[in-house]
Amino acid sequence: MIECQKMTQDTLADAYSLLTNFLSQDEYYLDSSAAYGDSGNAALFDALKLFLDHPEHGFVWLAYDHEVVVGVCLVNLAISTSIGAIVARLDDFYVATGKHRRGIGTAMLDALRAELDQADVRRIDTSVHMLNDGGRRFYQKNGFLLLNEERLSRVL
């Protein structure tokens, strides 16, 4: 059974481990990493600490299968003018290598929806690399709609 929770100081190493794998191996992330201003593992660790120090900005969502971490995603909170409420933005959604197609991602999203509903968050946004057909199908299967937009980035 998949159990999900927000990252804590005690589970920071689990999040760091999975995200290190994702950021160093995912072909779609690597294709865009220069535009994101990827600054390596030190920046990842700093980001995870920021989530712990500033929970009002979001959190890291972890999935465990029998106490083994198998999934992670970043949940950033923002204000939406179109819905007039707080919304969540998912980034770096990752299920561990060898654990795909077992329902872990869907279980993560289901538990996350319940968590966000309790916090009165009204929408979940995410993005998928233009060539990542599998990721797009996963999100659409889980109720996400295409926006006919393209995400852009500028490092400051």
Tell me the series of helices and strands, N- to C-terminal: EHHHEEEHEH
Mean pLDDT: 95
| Largest sheet geometry | 5 strands, mixed
Class derived from helix and strand content: alpha+beta
Rounded to an integer in angstroms, the radius of gyration calculated over CA atoms is 15 Å
CATH homologous group name: Gcn5-related N-acetyltransferase (GNAT)
Helix content: 25-40%
Please give the CATH class: Alpha Beta
Instruction: Give the total of domains.
Output: 1
Kindly list the characteristics that best describe this protein.
25% strand; Aminopeptidase; 156 residues; single chain; alpha+beta; 40% helix
Describe the structure concisely for a colleague.
This protein has 156 residues and is of the alpha+beta class. The protein is 40% helix and 25% strand.
Architecture overview:
- With 156 residues, the protein is α+β, with helices and mostly antiparallel strands.
- It has a single domain, classed as Aminopeptidase (3-Layer(aba) Sandwich), CATH 3.40.630.30.
- The protein contains 5 helices and 5 strands.
- It has a 5-stranded mixed β-sheet, sandwiched between helices.
- Helix 1 packs across helix 2 and helix 1 packs antiparallel against helix 3.
- It is globular.
- The model has no long low-confidence stretch (mean pLDDT 95).
Fold topology:
Layout (H helix, E strand, L loop, with lengths): L1 E5 L5 H14 L1 H10 L3 H14 L4 E8 L2 E13 L4 E11 L8 H15 L5 E2 L7 H9 L15
Parallel strand pairs: 4-5
Antiparallel strand pairs: 1-2, 2-3, 3-4
